[in-house]
Structure prediction request, 180 residues.
Amino acid sequence: DEADQMSESVALALLKAADDGHGGHYPVIMDASSCSARMQKYLGERLKLLDFHEFAHDALLPRLRVRRKPGPIALHINCSVRRTATDAKLRALVAACAEQIVEPAGVTCCGFAGDRGFVVPELNVHALRKIHDALPAACCEGVSTNRTCEIGLTEETGRPYHSVAYLLEECSRAGEFMTC
Prediction:
C-alpha cells in the first residue's frame, strides 16, 4: 500500500515536471532501474519513461565518439533490467565502452533487495557467494544500473561498482582512463 501511495505521488510529480505546456509530456529518464521499472508499470502510457541505459543506448551512443576502455569490467544485470527485458541494450552499451566484459555466471541478483541489504547484509553476502570465483583478479571495477545494487556489489567484492552512466561519460571524453 505504501509503495502504491508513493508511486502515485511520484507519478503526479513526474507528470507535472514533464508537462510540455501543449498537452503532451517530455520523456523522463531515470537512473535507477528498480524505480524506472516500477514507474514504467505504474504510469503505463501516460508518460514515456526510460531507464538511463535505454536512453543512452538509443539516443546517446549514435551521437557520441566512444573509446573502448581496456577491461575487464564486471557487468551486473540487476533484477529490474531482467524483468523489463532491456538487458540486451545494457550489454550493447557496455560493449561499446569496454574491450572486455565479465558477467559472472550464477549471479542474477545482488541480494540487496531494495534497501534491505543495509539492515540484513546476509542477503547480499548469500546472493553474491559465487561472484568471487567469477571475477578475475585483473577486474578492478564494475557497472550496473541501480545504486543500491552497486553499493552491495562494492561492499561484497571490494571493487568499486558504479552506474553505467559513469562508464559512458568516461569513454566519451578525451583523456586517460581511470585505472585501478
About this structure: Strands lie at 28-30, 49-51, 73-75, 101-102, 142-144, 161-163. The longest helix spans residues 2-17. The longest strand covers residues 28-30. The CA atoms of residues 59 and 164 lie 15 Å apart.
